[in-house]
């Protein structure tokens, strides 16, 4: 008589996803009165309100396109027979492109116009979708290059475009703060939507419906291109390269505060990239069978919930400076990754730490966007953001190459990410100390 062994697949309680959804809805409806007025006030400028609605809708489409590759890209490579080493090589090529080309796209965005770069983002996704439909599986290396460039634009282009356009419309700082957290919230929600869209298009039949995913991405890209080309009229940039270089040197190269902020941004980018590369391998270590498809929405739900906490720090009396909030958040994120790097045997604890990391990240991203607005003029914002990611992309590429040759373990990469977050907390401490000294000197005057 044969023995049947039942497979025990671990999965989070499905009610947790519902709980995250309810908490996010409640947190939005219970926002401070000033924040609720800024988000839902229909008596504000009609042009500003129209811009916010169109922009958030367009940003949601861009997030879905990014999420489709993030959710389905690695699975697609594995489905077509790519080995783990080949998948790692494709990812490494993507980060190499982000390092050597993507790091300088922000400067082009400042000089040529942010709208043009965002339009290029959608055109790249459209080109990749059509290329896959025509040539099939022989194009993954080329599509990886285009999608990496698109991801580089996504990391800074839409935020820079939003800030510049709202500055032209004469927005208040409170409105801009609300746009920052809404973008973080909407990005995570759209990533969850991209997972649902991919599952719907594939419909449990990858062989028959694989091309439907590319068709769906192409449709979204065409819709976005139409919105960009017909939705806004962007004034051409007239500042010559020489003036831009002078402004960049005055505000970035010569200001040590910008160096501290840039390093903190780079550390966050590195830790997030390391997280999404390693969260699944960490969970399924030692051959554990886990329902990753249910954990993924929990992680993004945590990030959404964290982003809704941001308005409470700016529409109620502030107890601490912005830099202090970031310092504590970076420290918590660093400790969470340190525990994961040290021992990740208990899957419940591991998922809880990942959710804690994402919750803090949801609060950190709007805080960093606010600091960029404080320290940087709009005309060099894109260049500063893209160049600040260069150390992170270089470090990720270097560690991926070492990982491909089996010189380091996943836990080592996680430890480096934790160390980077601790150093980012140190940068925030220096910025806080610098700001207090400046305030004290002004009082003495």
From TrEMBL:
**Which keywords annotate this record?**
Membrane, Transmembrane, Transmembrane helix
Q: Does the keyword Transmembrane apply?
A: yes
Keyword check for Lipid metabolism, yes or no.
Answer: no
Kindly list any coiled-coil regions of this protein: none
Among Pfam families, the record links this protein to: MFS_5
Residue intervals passing through the bilayer: 12-34, 55-75, 87-108, 140-158, 179-201, 213-232, 258-279, 294-313, 325-344, 350-371, 383-402, 408-431
Q: Which domain of life is it from?
A: Eukaryota
Family that this chain belongs to: Belongs to the major facilitator superfamily. Phosphate:H(+) symporter (TC 2.A.1.9) family.
Q: What is this protein called?
A: Molybdate-anion transporter-like
Question: Which organism was this protein described from?
Answer: Salvia divinorum (Maria pastora)
Q: State the taxonomy lineage.
A: Eukaryota, Viridiplantae, Streptophyta, Embryophyta, Tracheophyta
